[in-house]
Amino acid sequence: MIIGEQKPLDEIMSLLGNARRVLVAGCGTCVTVCFAGGEKEAAILASALRMRSKLEGHPMEVDEITVQRQCEWEYIDPLADRLRDYDVVLSLACGIGVQAMNERFPETITLPGLNTTFLGLPEEHGVWEERCQACGDCILGITFGICPIARCSKQLLNGPCGGSQNGVCEVNKDIPCAWQLIWERAIQFNQEERLLEVQPPKNWARSRDGGPRKIVREDLRLGEGE
Amino acid sequence: MAEEFEPKILAFCCHYCAYAAADLAGVMRLKYPPAIRIVEIPCSGRVEVGEILRAFEHGADGVMVAG
Amino acid sequence: MSENGYKSGSNLEKILRAGYFAVTAEIGPPQNADPEVIRRKARLLKGVVDATNITDNQTAIVRMSSIASAVLAMQEGVEPIVQMTCRDRNRLAMQSDLLGAYALGARNLLCLTGDHQSFGNHPTAKNVHDLDSIQFIRMVRDMRDEGRFQCGDEIKGVRPAFFIGAAENPFGDPFDFRPYRLMKKIAAGVDFIQTQIILDVPRFREFMKRVVDMGLHEKVFILAGIGPLKSAGAARYMRDKVPGMRVRDEYVERMEAAVAGIPKEDKKARKEAWEQEGIRIAIEQIQELREIPGVAGVHIMAIEWEEAVRPIVEGAGLLPRPQV
Predict the structure, then answer these.
(1) Facing C184 at nearest CB: one of A155, A170, A198
(2) ipTM of the predicted structure?
(3) Nearest Cα residue to A159 out of C113, B61, C255
(4) Chain A residues 120-139 with a CB less than 8 Å from chain C
Protein backbone atom coordinates (compact mmCIF):
# COMPACT_ATOMS: atom_id res chain seq x y z
CA MET A 1 0.00 0.00 0.00
CA ILE A 2 0.91 3.68 -0.16
CA ILE A 3 2.58 4.91 3.01
CA GLY A 4 2.40 8.54 4.03
CA GLU A 5 3.54 10.70 6.90
CA GLN A 6 1.93 13.90 8.12
CA LYS A 7 3.80 17.11 7.39
CA PRO A 8 4.96 19.13 10.41
CA LEU A 9 2.29 21.52 11.71
CA ASP A 10 4.51 24.54 11.02
CA GLU A 11 4.77 23.61 7.38
CA ILE A 12 1.02 23.05 7.12
CA MET A 13 0.34 26.43 8.74
CA SER A 14 2.66 28.12 6.31
CA LEU A 15 1.00 26.35 3.35
CA LEU A 16 -2.41 27.49 4.56
CA GLY A 17 -1.25 31.10 4.75
CA ASN A 18 -4.21 33.46 5.10
CA ALA A 19 -6.91 30.87 4.49
CA ARG A 20 -9.81 31.39 6.91
CA ARG A 21 -12.03 28.47 6.07
CA VAL A 22 -10.30 25.14 5.74
CA LEU A 23 -11.63 21.69 5.02
CA VAL A 24 -9.37 18.89 6.16
CA ALA A 25 -10.06 15.94 3.87
CA GLY A 26 -9.03 12.50 5.07
CA CYS A 27 -8.83 9.42 2.90
CA GLY A 28 -10.21 6.08 4.03
CA THR A 29 -7.83 3.74 2.22
CA CYS A 30 -4.02 3.42 2.37
CA VAL A 31 -3.32 6.41 4.60
CA THR A 32 -5.96 5.30 7.08
CA VAL A 33 -4.26 1.93 7.47
CA CYS A 34 -0.89 3.59 8.04
CA PHE A 35 -2.36 6.04 10.56
CA ALA A 36 -1.40 9.13 8.61
CA GLY A 37 -4.51 10.57 6.99
CA GLY A 38 -7.68 8.74 7.97
CA GLU A 39 -10.76 9.92 9.79
CA LYS A 40 -9.05 10.04 13.18
CA GLU A 41 -5.99 11.88 11.94
CA ALA A 42 -8.20 14.36 10.08
CA ALA A 43 -10.10 15.14 13.30
CA ILE A 44 -6.89 15.55 15.29
CA LEU A 45 -5.28 17.79 12.69
CA ALA A 46 -8.43 19.91 12.36
CA SER A 47 -8.48 20.42 16.11
CA ALA A 48 -4.78 21.25 16.17
CA LEU A 49 -5.27 23.82 13.40
CA ARG A 50 -8.18 25.47 15.20
CA MET A 51 -6.16 25.79 18.40
CA ARG A 52 -2.96 26.89 16.71
CA SER A 53 -4.67 29.56 14.61
CA LYS A 54 -6.58 30.79 17.67
CA LEU A 55 -3.36 31.04 19.66
CA GLU A 56 -1.80 33.00 16.82
CA GLY A 57 -4.67 35.45 16.94
CA HIS A 58 -6.42 34.72 13.65
CA PRO A 59 -8.70 31.78 14.23
CA MET A 60 -9.50 29.56 11.29
CA GLU A 61 -12.73 27.79 10.73
CA VAL A 62 -11.68 24.18 10.24
CA ASP A 63 -13.95 21.26 9.46
CA GLU A 64 -13.10 17.75 8.50
CA ILE A 65 -14.49 15.12 6.23
CA THR A 66 -13.19 11.75 5.17
CA VAL A 67 -13.98 9.97 1.93
CA GLN A 68 -13.37 6.34 1.16
CA ARG A 69 -10.80 7.03 -1.57
CA GLN A 70 -9.60 10.37 -2.84
CA CYS A 71 -8.04 8.84 -5.92
CA GLU A 72 -11.31 7.91 -7.62
CA TRP A 73 -13.84 10.30 -9.09
CA GLU A 74 -16.84 8.36 -7.76
CA TYR A 75 -15.74 8.91 -4.19
CA ILE A 76 -14.86 12.58 -4.41
CA ASP A 77 -17.65 13.81 -6.67
CA PRO A 78 -20.14 14.08 -3.77
CA LEU A 79 -17.81 16.71 -2.20
CA ALA A 80 -18.52 19.21 -4.98
CA ASP A 81 -21.17 21.24 -3.15
CA ARG A 82 -19.38 21.33 0.16
CA LEU A 83 -16.18 22.72 -1.23
CA ARG A 84 -17.83 26.08 -1.99
CA ASP A 85 -17.85 26.86 1.73
CA TYR A 86 -14.04 26.75 2.05
CA ASP A 87 -11.03 28.75 0.95
CA VAL A 88 -8.83 25.69 0.70
CA VAL A 89 -8.91 21.95 1.13
CA LEU A 90 -6.10 20.35 3.09
CA SER A 91 -5.94 16.80 1.84
CA LEU A 92 -4.55 14.04 3.99
CA ALA A 93 -4.53 11.66 1.05
CA CYS A 94 -1.41 10.62 -0.84
CA GLY A 95 -0.14 12.74 -3.70
CA ILE A 96 -2.58 10.97 -6.00
CA GLY A 97 -5.55 12.06 -3.91
CA VAL A 98 -4.31 15.65 -3.71
CA GLN A 99 -3.98 15.78 -7.49
CA ALA A 100 -7.33 14.09 -8.05
CA MET A 101 -8.97 16.79 -5.91
CA ASN A 102 -7.25 19.61 -7.78
CA GLU A 103 -8.14 18.01 -11.10
CA ARG A 104 -11.78 17.38 -10.29
CA PHE A 105 -12.36 20.67 -8.48
CA PRO A 106 -10.13 23.15 -10.31
CA GLU A 107 -11.83 26.16 -8.75
CA THR A 108 -10.63 25.10 -5.29
CA ILE A 109 -7.03 24.77 -4.19
CA THR A 110 -6.26 21.49 -2.50
CA LEU A 111 -3.04 21.44 -0.49
CA PRO A 112 -1.10 18.41 0.73
CA GLY A 113 -1.05 17.67 4.44
CA LEU A 114 1.04 14.54 4.04
CA ASN A 115 4.31 13.59 2.50
CA THR A 116 3.67 10.53 0.38
CA THR A 117 6.67 8.47 1.33
CA PHE A 118 6.68 5.08 -0.37
CA LEU A 119 4.99 1.86 -1.43
CA GLY A 120 5.53 -0.53 1.38
CA LEU A 121 4.15 -2.58 4.18
CA PRO A 122 3.98 -2.56 7.96
CA GLU A 123 6.83 -4.79 9.15
CA GLU A 124 5.23 -4.68 12.56
CA HIS A 125 2.70 -2.40 14.20
CA GLY A 126 4.15 1.09 13.92
CA VAL A 127 7.01 0.24 11.53
CA TRP A 128 6.69 0.59 7.77
CA GLU A 129 9.26 -0.15 5.10
CA GLU A 130 9.47 0.37 1.38
CA ARG A 131 9.12 -2.63 -0.89
CA CYS A 132 8.42 -1.34 -4.40
CA GLN A 133 9.39 1.65 -6.52
CA ALA A 134 6.91 0.93 -9.31
CA CYS A 135 9.78 0.80 -11.82
CA GLY A 136 7.43 -0.65 -14.39
CA ASP A 137 9.50 -3.72 -15.23
CA CYS A 138 9.33 -6.18 -12.37
CA ILE A 139 12.45 -8.23 -11.73
CA LEU A 140 11.30 -10.04 -8.60
CA GLY A 141 11.20 -13.22 -10.66
CA ILE A 142 14.98 -13.23 -11.01
CA THR A 143 15.82 -11.86 -7.57
CA PHE A 144 13.98 -14.45 -5.52
CA GLY A 145 11.19 -12.14 -4.51
CA ILE A 146 13.36 -9.36 -3.02
CA CYS A 147 13.53 -6.09 -4.91
CA PRO A 148 16.99 -4.50 -5.25
CA ILE A 149 15.49 -1.45 -6.95
CA ALA A 150 13.55 -0.56 -3.82
CA ARG A 151 15.77 -2.15 -1.20
CA CYS A 152 19.38 -1.76 -2.35
CA SER A 153 20.66 1.77 -1.68
CA LYS A 154 22.39 1.75 -5.07
CA GLN A 155 19.77 -0.20 -7.04
CA LEU A 156 22.35 -2.77 -8.09
CA LEU A 157 21.28 -5.57 -10.40
CA ASN A 158 24.34 -7.82 -10.34
CA GLY A 159 25.02 -8.48 -6.69
CA PRO A 160 26.11 -6.60 -3.59
CA CYS A 161 28.57 -3.72 -3.61
CA GLY A 162 31.68 -3.78 -1.45
CA GLY A 163 29.89 -2.09 1.41
CA SER A 164 27.72 -5.04 2.44
CA GLN A 165 28.86 -6.35 5.78
CA ASN A 166 27.31 -8.69 8.31
CA GLY A 167 24.10 -8.57 6.34
CA VAL A 168 23.63 -4.82 6.50
CA CYS A 169 24.03 -1.95 4.07
CA GLU A 170 26.96 0.47 4.27
CA VAL A 171 24.52 3.35 4.39
CA ASN A 172 22.93 2.41 7.69
CA LYS A 173 23.03 -0.62 9.92
CA ASP A 174 19.23 -0.59 10.07
CA ILE A 175 19.03 -1.38 6.37
CA PRO A 176 19.36 -5.08 5.62
CA CYS A 177 21.51 -5.61 2.52
CA ALA A 178 19.02 -6.59 -0.19
CA TRP A 179 21.66 -8.65 -1.99
CA GLN A 180 22.51 -10.57 1.15
CA LEU A 181 18.82 -11.47 1.38
CA ILE A 182 18.68 -12.39 -2.30
CA TRP A 183 21.80 -14.54 -1.98
CA GLU A 184 20.37 -16.36 1.03
CA ARG A 185 17.15 -17.08 -0.86
CA ALA A 186 19.16 -18.39 -3.82
CA ILE A 187 21.01 -20.76 -1.50
CA GLN A 188 17.76 -21.82 0.13
CA PHE A 189 16.44 -22.96 -3.26
CA ASN A 190 19.82 -24.26 -4.50
CA GLN A 191 19.73 -21.86 -7.41
CA GLU A 192 22.85 -19.75 -6.89
CA GLU A 193 23.72 -20.12 -10.56
CA ARG A 194 20.78 -17.91 -11.45
CA LEU A 195 22.61 -14.98 -9.90
CA LEU A 196 25.77 -15.57 -11.91
CA GLU A 197 24.37 -14.31 -15.19
CA VAL A 198 25.27 -10.69 -15.97
CA GLN A 199 22.06 -8.68 -15.92
CA PRO A 200 21.99 -6.04 -18.66
CA PRO A 201 21.30 -2.36 -17.95
CA LYS A 202 17.75 -1.77 -16.88
CA ASN A 203 15.19 -0.22 -19.17
CA TRP A 204 14.41 2.87 -17.16
CA ALA A 205 12.10 4.11 -19.90
CA ARG A 206 9.43 2.05 -18.17
CA SER A 207 10.09 3.85 -14.91
CA ARG A 208 9.21 7.45 -14.13
CA ASP A 209 11.77 9.02 -16.42
CA GLY A 210 9.52 9.48 -19.41
CA GLY A 211 6.74 11.65 -18.02
CA PRO A 212 3.62 10.17 -16.42
CA ARG A 213 3.14 6.55 -17.32
CA LYS A 214 -0.15 5.47 -18.74
CA ILE A 215 -2.00 2.24 -19.34
CA VAL A 216 -4.89 2.10 -21.79
CA ARG A 217 -7.02 -1.03 -21.82
CA GLU A 218 -9.35 -0.88 -24.79
CA ASP A 219 -11.17 -3.96 -23.55
CA LEU A 220 -12.20 -2.05 -20.45
CA ARG A 221 -12.95 1.36 -21.88
CA LEU A 222 -16.59 2.27 -22.05
CA GLY A 223 -16.26 4.38 -25.17
CA GLU A 224 -18.67 7.10 -26.13
CA GLY A 225 -22.36 6.79 -26.92
CA GLU A 226 -22.55 3.14 -26.07
CA MET B 1 -3.28 42.17 40.87
CA ALA B 2 -4.39 39.43 38.51
CA GLU B 3 -6.95 37.00 39.74
CA GLU B 4 -5.55 33.81 41.08
CA PHE B 5 -5.44 31.24 38.29
CA GLU B 6 -7.81 28.37 38.82
CA PRO B 7 -7.34 25.78 36.11
CA LYS B 8 -10.33 24.15 34.49
CA ILE B 9 -9.69 20.44 34.36
CA LEU B 10 -11.68 17.81 32.56
CA ALA B 11 -11.38 14.29 33.97
CA PHE B 12 -12.31 11.27 31.90
CA CYS B 13 -13.02 8.63 34.52
CA CYS B 14 -13.51 4.93 34.03
CA HIS B 15 -16.86 3.69 35.28
CA TYR B 16 -15.29 0.79 37.13
CA CYS B 17 -12.50 2.45 39.07
CA ALA B 18 -11.80 6.19 38.90
CA TYR B 19 -15.47 7.16 38.68
CA ALA B 20 -16.32 4.79 41.51
CA ALA B 21 -13.54 6.40 43.54
CA ALA B 22 -15.00 9.84 42.88
CA ASP B 23 -18.35 8.51 44.13
CA LEU B 24 -16.67 7.19 47.24
CA ALA B 25 -14.97 10.56 47.77
CA GLY B 26 -18.41 12.14 47.74
CA VAL B 27 -19.69 9.63 50.31
CA MET B 28 -16.66 10.46 52.49
CA ARG B 29 -17.45 14.18 52.14
CA LEU B 30 -14.04 14.86 50.58
CA LYS B 31 -13.92 18.08 48.59
CA TYR B 32 -12.37 18.83 45.22
CA PRO B 33 -12.31 22.14 43.34
CA PRO B 34 -15.46 22.94 41.40
CA ALA B 35 -13.41 23.65 38.28
CA ILE B 36 -12.86 19.94 37.84
CA ARG B 37 -15.47 18.38 35.57
CA ILE B 38 -15.87 14.65 35.43
CA VAL B 39 -16.98 12.69 32.37
CA GLU B 40 -17.86 9.11 33.06
CA ILE B 41 -16.68 6.70 30.43
CA PRO B 42 -17.10 2.92 30.22
CA CYS B 43 -13.33 2.40 29.97
CA SER B 44 -10.31 4.71 29.71
CA GLY B 45 -9.28 2.78 26.61
CA ARG B 46 -12.27 4.42 24.97
CA VAL B 47 -10.70 7.91 25.08
CA GLU B 48 -9.49 9.18 21.73
CA VAL B 49 -6.85 11.83 21.10
CA GLY B 50 -9.50 13.85 19.27
CA GLU B 51 -11.65 14.03 22.41
CA ILE B 52 -8.80 15.27 24.53
CA LEU B 53 -8.06 17.98 21.95
CA ARG B 54 -11.74 18.90 21.84
CA ALA B 55 -11.64 19.49 25.58
CA PHE B 56 -8.74 21.89 25.16
CA GLU B 57 -10.48 23.62 22.28
CA HIS B 58 -13.49 24.19 24.52
CA GLY B 59 -11.41 25.86 27.18
CA ALA B 60 -10.02 23.16 29.41
CA ASP B 61 -6.60 23.97 30.88
CA GLY B 62 -5.89 20.36 31.63
CA VAL B 63 -7.28 16.95 30.83
CA MET B 64 -6.98 13.93 33.07
CA VAL B 65 -7.62 10.38 31.95
CA ALA B 66 -8.11 8.16 34.98
CA GLY B 67 -8.73 4.49 34.80
CA MET C 1 42.52 -6.14 -29.73
CA SER C 2 44.75 -3.74 -31.61
CA GLU C 3 47.47 -4.77 -34.03
CA ASN C 4 50.22 -4.71 -31.44
CA GLY C 5 48.28 -7.25 -29.39
CA TYR C 6 47.40 -4.87 -26.60
CA LYS C 7 43.89 -3.86 -25.70
CA SER C 8 44.85 -0.34 -24.72
CA GLY C 9 48.60 -0.17 -24.92
CA SER C 10 48.80 1.50 -21.52
CA ASN C 11 51.96 1.17 -19.46
CA LEU C 12 50.02 -0.74 -16.81
CA GLU C 13 48.75 -3.23 -19.36
CA LYS C 14 52.24 -3.75 -20.77
CA ILE C 15 53.77 -4.26 -17.34
CA LEU C 16 51.15 -6.83 -16.37
CA ARG C 17 51.23 -8.68 -19.69
CA ALA C 18 55.03 -8.84 -19.49
CA GLY C 19 54.61 -10.66 -16.19
CA TYR C 20 56.07 -7.97 -13.93
CA PHE C 21 54.70 -7.45 -10.45
CA ALA C 22 52.75 -4.22 -10.94
CA VAL C 23 52.59 -1.26 -8.58
CA THR C 24 49.84 1.34 -8.64
CA ALA C 25 49.00 4.13 -6.24
CA GLU C 26 46.31 6.70 -5.79
CA ILE C 27 45.92 10.45 -6.12
CA GLY C 28 42.98 12.18 -4.53
CA PRO C 29 42.13 15.42 -6.36
CA PRO C 30 41.68 18.56 -4.25
CA GLN C 31 38.45 20.15 -3.15
CA ASN C 32 39.38 23.23 -5.13
CA ALA C 33 40.59 24.22 -8.58
CA ASP C 34 44.34 24.26 -7.87
CA PRO C 35 46.25 22.22 -10.49
CA GLU C 36 49.42 22.37 -8.38
CA VAL C 37 47.95 19.85 -5.89
CA ILE C 38 47.78 17.18 -8.57
CA ARG C 39 51.14 18.13 -10.01
CA ARG C 40 52.84 17.90 -6.62
CA LYS C 41 51.33 14.50 -5.84
CA ALA C 42 52.16 13.25 -9.31
CA ARG C 43 55.81 14.28 -8.92
CA LEU C 44 56.00 12.22 -5.74
CA LEU C 45 54.84 9.14 -7.68
CA LYS C 46 56.75 9.58 -10.92
CA GLY C 47 58.99 6.62 -11.57
CA VAL C 48 57.74 4.94 -8.40
CA VAL C 49 54.56 3.36 -9.73
CA ASP C 50 53.38 2.02 -13.09
CA ALA C 51 50.17 4.02 -13.02
CA THR C 52 48.14 5.89 -10.50
CA ASN C 53 44.42 6.00 -9.82
CA ILE C 54 42.74 9.38 -9.88
CA THR C 55 39.73 9.15 -7.65
CA ASP C 56 36.29 10.32 -8.73
CA ASN C 57 34.59 12.37 -5.99
CA GLN C 58 35.85 9.86 -3.46
CA THR C 59 33.66 9.27 -0.42
CA ALA C 60 31.05 11.32 -2.28
CA ILE C 61 32.82 14.61 -1.62
CA VAL C 62 33.06 17.06 -4.50
CA ARG C 63 36.58 17.25 -5.85
CA MET C 64 38.34 18.24 -9.03
CA SER C 65 37.21 16.09 -11.93
CA SER C 66 39.02 12.81 -12.26
CA ILE C 67 39.54 13.22 -16.00
CA ALA C 68 40.89 16.77 -15.67
CA SER C 69 43.20 15.63 -12.87
CA ALA C 70 44.33 12.71 -15.02
CA VAL C 71 45.42 15.12 -17.73
CA LEU C 72 47.46 17.09 -15.16
CA ALA C 73 49.08 13.84 -13.98
CA MET C 74 49.99 12.94 -17.56
CA GLN C 75 51.61 16.32 -18.00
CA GLU C 76 53.86 15.38 -15.07
CA GLY C 77 54.73 12.07 -16.72
CA VAL C 78 52.54 9.83 -14.58
CA GLU C 79 50.14 7.41 -16.21
CA PRO C 80 46.64 7.79 -14.79
CA ILE C 81 43.92 5.25 -14.09
CA VAL C 82 40.75 7.28 -14.38
CA GLN C 83 38.23 6.25 -11.76
CA MET C 84 34.57 6.66 -12.65
CA THR C 85 31.55 5.90 -10.50
CA CYS C 86 27.99 4.97 -11.40
CA ARG C 87 26.76 7.24 -8.65
CA ASP C 88 27.10 10.57 -10.45
CA ARG C 89 26.48 9.84 -14.12
CA ASN C 90 23.96 8.13 -16.33
CA ARG C 91 24.98 6.05 -19.34
CA LEU C 92 25.03 9.09 -21.64
CA ALA C 93 27.35 11.11 -19.42
CA MET C 94 29.58 8.10 -18.82
CA GLN C 95 30.08 7.36 -22.49
CA SER C 96 30.62 10.96 -23.39
CA ASP C 97 33.23 11.33 -20.63
CA LEU C 98 34.90 8.12 -21.79
CA LEU C 99 35.26 9.48 -25.32
CA GLY C 100 36.69 12.68 -23.88
CA ALA C 101 39.07 10.94 -21.49
CA TYR C 102 40.42 8.76 -24.27
CA ALA C 103 40.81 11.72 -26.59
CA LEU C 104 42.86 13.44 -23.88
CA GLY C 105 45.17 10.43 -23.62
CA ALA C 106 43.80 8.38 -20.72
CA ARG C 107 44.19 4.65 -21.32
CA ASN C 108 43.24 3.02 -18.01
CA LEU C 109 39.80 3.14 -16.47
CA LEU C 110 38.50 1.87 -13.14
CA CYS C 111 34.76 1.17 -13.12
CA LEU C 112 33.17 1.67 -9.73
CA THR C 113 29.73 1.67 -8.18
CA GLY C 114 30.71 4.59 -5.93
CA ASP C 115 30.36 5.33 -2.23
CA HIS C 116 26.85 6.28 -1.27
CA GLN C 117 26.16 10.01 -1.35
CA SER C 118 25.03 9.97 2.26
CA PHE C 119 28.72 9.67 3.30
CA GLY C 120 29.79 12.82 1.53
CA ASN C 121 29.24 16.54 1.65
CA HIS C 122 26.08 16.51 -0.49
CA PRO C 123 23.93 13.95 1.30
CA THR C 124 20.71 15.42 -0.15
CA ALA C 125 21.90 14.83 -3.73
CA LYS C 126 20.05 12.46 -6.03
CA ASN C 127 22.14 9.44 -6.90
CA VAL C 128 22.07 8.05 -10.41
CA HIS C 129 23.04 4.36 -10.53
CA ASP C 130 21.65 4.05 -14.03
CA LEU C 131 24.17 1.24 -14.46
CA ASP C 132 25.90 -0.88 -11.87
CA SER C 133 29.65 -1.47 -12.02
CA ILE C 134 29.27 -4.77 -13.88
CA GLN C 135 27.03 -3.26 -16.55
CA PHE C 136 29.49 -0.37 -16.73
CA ILE C 137 32.40 -2.75 -17.40
CA ARG C 138 30.45 -4.42 -20.19
CA MET C 139 29.59 -1.08 -21.74
CA VAL C 140 33.26 -0.03 -21.81
CA ARG C 141 34.31 -3.39 -23.21
CA ASP C 142 31.70 -3.19 -25.97
CA MET C 143 32.83 0.32 -26.85
CA ARG C 144 36.39 -0.97 -27.18
CA ASP C 145 35.97 -4.44 -28.65
CA GLU C 146 32.70 -4.18 -30.57
CA GLY C 147 32.89 -0.50 -31.43
CA ARG C 148 29.38 -0.01 -30.13
CA PHE C 149 27.71 2.38 -27.75
CA GLN C 150 25.59 0.89 -25.00
CA CYS C 151 22.48 1.39 -27.15
CA GLY C 152 24.02 -0.72 -29.90
CA ASP C 153 24.85 2.12 -32.30
CA GLU C 154 28.19 1.86 -34.05
CA ILE C 155 31.05 4.11 -33.02
CA LYS C 156 32.16 5.56 -36.33
CA GLY C 157 35.79 6.50 -36.01
CA VAL C 158 38.16 6.16 -33.08
CA ARG C 159 37.02 3.76 -30.41
CA PRO C 160 37.92 4.45 -26.78
CA ALA C 161 40.21 1.51 -26.04
CA PHE C 162 40.67 1.39 -22.29
CA PHE C 163 42.45 -1.12 -20.11
CA ILE C 164 39.46 -1.88 -17.93
CA GLY C 165 39.72 -2.16 -14.19
CA ALA C 166 37.32 -2.70 -11.35
CA ALA C 167 37.44 -2.94 -7.59
CA GLU C 168 36.69 -5.93 -5.46
CA ASN C 169 36.27 -6.13 -1.74
CA PRO C 170 37.34 -9.60 -0.57
CA PHE C 171 36.04 -8.69 2.88
CA GLY C 172 32.53 -7.73 1.88
CA ASP C 173 29.60 -9.98 2.56
CA PRO C 174 28.17 -12.36 1.62
CA PHE C 175 31.70 -13.78 1.57
CA ASP C 176 30.70 -16.80 -0.52
CA PHE C 177 29.33 -14.57 -3.23
CA ARG C 178 32.51 -12.49 -3.60
CA PRO C 179 34.43 -14.82 -5.94
CA TYR C 180 31.28 -15.14 -8.06
CA ARG C 181 31.00 -11.40 -8.25
CA LEU C 182 34.57 -11.33 -9.51
CA MET C 183 33.57 -13.99 -12.03
CA LYS C 184 30.72 -11.76 -13.21
CA LYS C 185 33.11 -8.84 -13.64
CA ILE C 186 35.37 -11.05 -15.72
CA ALA C 187 32.42 -12.19 -17.81
CA ALA C 188 31.53 -8.52 -18.30
CA GLY C 189 35.04 -7.86 -19.62
CA VAL C 190 37.29 -6.58 -16.84
CA ASP C 191 41.08 -6.73 -17.38
CA PHE C 192 42.41 -5.92 -13.92
CA ILE C 193 41.15 -5.76 -10.37
CA GLN C 194 42.29 -3.63 -7.46
CA THR C 195 41.17 -4.90 -4.11
CA GLN C 196 40.03 -3.11 -1.02
CA ILE C 197 42.78 -2.40 1.53
CA ILE C 198 43.93 -5.71 2.97
CA LEU C 199 44.52 -5.70 6.70
CA ASP C 200 43.40 -9.27 7.18
CA VAL C 201 45.79 -11.38 5.15
CA PRO C 202 44.44 -14.82 6.18
CA ARG C 203 40.97 -13.87 4.99
CA PHE C 204 42.39 -12.52 1.74
CA ARG C 205 44.38 -15.73 1.29
CA GLU C 206 41.14 -17.69 1.64
CA PHE C 207 39.47 -15.46 -0.94
CA MET C 208 42.40 -15.89 -3.34
CA LYS C 209 42.36 -19.65 -2.89
CA ARG C 210 38.77 -19.71 -4.11
CA VAL C 211 39.69 -17.37 -6.97
CA VAL C 212 42.57 -19.61 -8.03
CA ASP C 213 40.47 -22.77 -7.65
CA MET C 214 37.96 -21.24 -10.03
CA GLY C 215 40.78 -20.32 -12.42
CA LEU C 216 39.82 -16.66 -12.31
CA HIS C 217 43.38 -15.44 -11.76
CA GLU C 218 44.23 -16.57 -15.28
CA LYS C 219 41.57 -14.30 -16.73
CA VAL C 220 42.23 -11.12 -14.79
CA PHE C 221 45.17 -9.37 -13.15
CA ILE C 222 44.58 -8.94 -9.44
CA LEU C 223 46.34 -6.12 -7.61
CA ALA C 224 46.17 -6.47 -3.85
CA GLY C 225 45.26 -3.34 -1.93
CA ILE C 226 47.74 -1.88 0.56
CA GLY C 227 46.74 0.90 2.91
CA PRO C 228 49.66 2.13 5.00
CA LEU C 229 48.49 2.98 8.52
CA LYS C 230 49.27 6.48 9.70
CA SER C 231 48.49 6.14 13.38
CA ALA C 232 46.97 3.82 15.95
CA GLY C 233 43.82 5.91 15.84
CA ALA C 234 43.54 5.50 12.08
CA ALA C 235 43.95 1.73 12.47
CA ARG C 236 41.22 1.60 15.10
CA TYR C 237 38.95 3.79 12.98
CA MET C 238 39.38 1.51 9.98
CA ARG C 239 38.75 -1.54 12.13
CA ASP C 240 35.67 -0.20 13.86
CA LYS C 241 34.04 2.35 11.61
CA VAL C 242 34.70 1.85 7.90
CA PRO C 243 32.05 -0.30 6.22
CA GLY C 244 33.42 -3.28 4.35
CA MET C 245 36.82 -3.20 6.13
CA ARG C 246 38.41 -5.92 8.19
CA VAL C 247 41.47 -5.03 10.26
CA ARG C 248 43.25 -7.65 12.34
CA ASP C 249 43.96 -6.61 15.91
CA GLU C 250 47.69 -7.31 15.47
CA TYR C 251 48.02 -4.23 13.25
CA VAL C 252 46.25 -2.03 15.75
CA GLU C 253 48.45 -3.43 18.51
CA ARG C 254 51.65 -2.88 16.52
CA MET C 255 50.69 0.72 15.86
CA GLU C 256 49.92 1.22 19.53
CA ALA C 257 53.23 -0.35 20.53
CA ALA C 258 55.11 1.85 18.06
CA VAL C 259 54.68 4.89 20.28
CA ALA C 260 55.24 3.10 23.60
CA GLY C 261 57.52 5.20 25.76
CA ILE C 262 57.07 8.36 23.72
CA PRO C 263 55.30 11.00 25.79
CA LYS C 264 51.92 12.15 24.48
CA GLU C 265 53.15 15.73 24.32
CA ASP C 266 55.87 14.87 21.84
CA LYS C 267 53.52 14.80 18.91
CA LYS C 268 56.26 15.01 16.32
CA ALA C 269 58.10 11.96 17.62
CA ARG C 270 54.87 9.98 17.88
CA LYS C 271 53.91 10.89 14.32
CA GLU C 272 57.31 9.81 13.05
CA ALA C 273 57.19 6.55 14.98
CA TRP C 274 53.74 5.79 13.67
CA GLU C 275 54.65 6.59 10.10
CA GLN C 276 57.74 4.43 10.25
CA GLU C 277 55.77 1.53 11.65
CA GLY C 278 52.99 2.06 9.08
CA ILE C 279 55.52 1.94 6.26
CA ARG C 280 57.20 -1.11 7.78
CA ILE C 281 53.89 -2.98 8.01
CA ALA C 282 53.08 -2.06 4.40
CA ILE C 283 56.45 -3.40 3.21
CA GLU C 284 56.00 -6.66 5.10
CA GLN C 285 52.51 -6.98 3.68
CA ILE C 286 53.70 -6.57 0.11
CA GLN C 287 56.22 -9.32 0.69
CA GLU C 288 53.52 -11.51 2.18
CA LEU C 289 50.95 -10.77 -0.54
CA ARG C 290 53.47 -11.40 -3.33
CA GLU C 291 53.68 -15.01 -2.23
CA ILE C 292 49.94 -15.57 -2.60
CA PRO C 293 49.16 -17.33 -5.88
CA GLY C 294 47.18 -15.18 -8.28
CA VAL C 295 48.38 -11.80 -7.01
CA ALA C 296 49.77 -9.83 -9.96
CA GLY C 297 50.67 -6.62 -8.20
CA VAL C 298 49.83 -4.19 -5.45
CA HIS C 299 47.73 -1.07 -5.30
CA ILE C 300 48.95 1.33 -2.61
CA MET C 301 46.31 3.62 -1.19
CA ALA C 302 48.25 6.15 0.85
CA ILE C 303 45.40 8.57 1.22
CA GLU C 304 46.73 12.13 1.58
CA TRP C 305 50.13 10.55 2.32
CA GLU C 306 51.64 10.16 -1.13
CA GLU C 307 55.13 10.68 0.42
CA ALA C 308 54.87 7.17 1.87
CA VAL C 309 54.63 5.45 -1.51
CA ARG C 310 58.30 5.72 -2.49
CA PRO C 311 59.75 4.31 0.77
CA ILE C 312 57.20 1.47 0.65
CA VAL C 313 57.92 0.51 -2.96
CA GLU C 314 61.64 0.91 -2.39
CA GLY C 315 61.55 -1.05 0.87
CA ALA C 316 59.70 -3.87 -0.87
CA GLY C 317 62.49 -4.06 -3.44
CA LEU C 318 60.25 -3.00 -6.31
CA LEU C 319 62.40 -0.12 -7.59
CA PRO C 320 63.33 0.80 -10.21
CA ARG C 321 60.11 0.13 -12.09
CA PRO C 322 60.60 -1.90 -15.26
CA GLN C 323 60.47 -0.15 -18.63
CA VAL C 324 58.39 -1.94 -21.23
Answers:
(1) A198
(2) 0.89
(3) C113
(4) none
- Which residues in C lie closer than 8 A to residue A173 (C-beta atoms)? none
In this prediction the pTM is 0.90
What topology is assigned to A2-118 in CATH?
Rossmann fold (3.40.50)
Nearest CA in chain A to C117: A171
- DSSP E strands: which ranges in chain A? 2-6, 21-27, 61-67, 88-91, 109-112, 114-124, 127-132
Containing structural domain, residue C44: 11-228+292-309
One-letter amino acid for residue C174 of the chain: P
Q: Is C254 contained in some domain? A: no
Ranges of each domain in chain A: 2-118, 134-202
Three-state SS at C77:
coil
B34 touches chain A (CB under 8 A): no
In a domain, C267, yes or no: no
pLDDT in tens, chain A (226 residues): 999 999 999 999 999 999 999 999 999 999 999 999 999 999 999 999 999 999 999 999 999 999 999 999 999 999 999 999 999 999 999 999 999 999 999 999 999 999 999 999 999 999 999 999 999 999 999 999 999 999 999 999 999 999 898 999 999 999 999 999 999 999 999 999 999 999 999 999 888 777 889 999 999 998 775 5
Residues of A in contact with C83 (CB under 8 A): none
Beta strands at B62-66 and B9-14: parallel, antiparallel or unpaired: parallel
Touching status, chains A and C (3+ beta-carbon pairs under 8 Å): yes
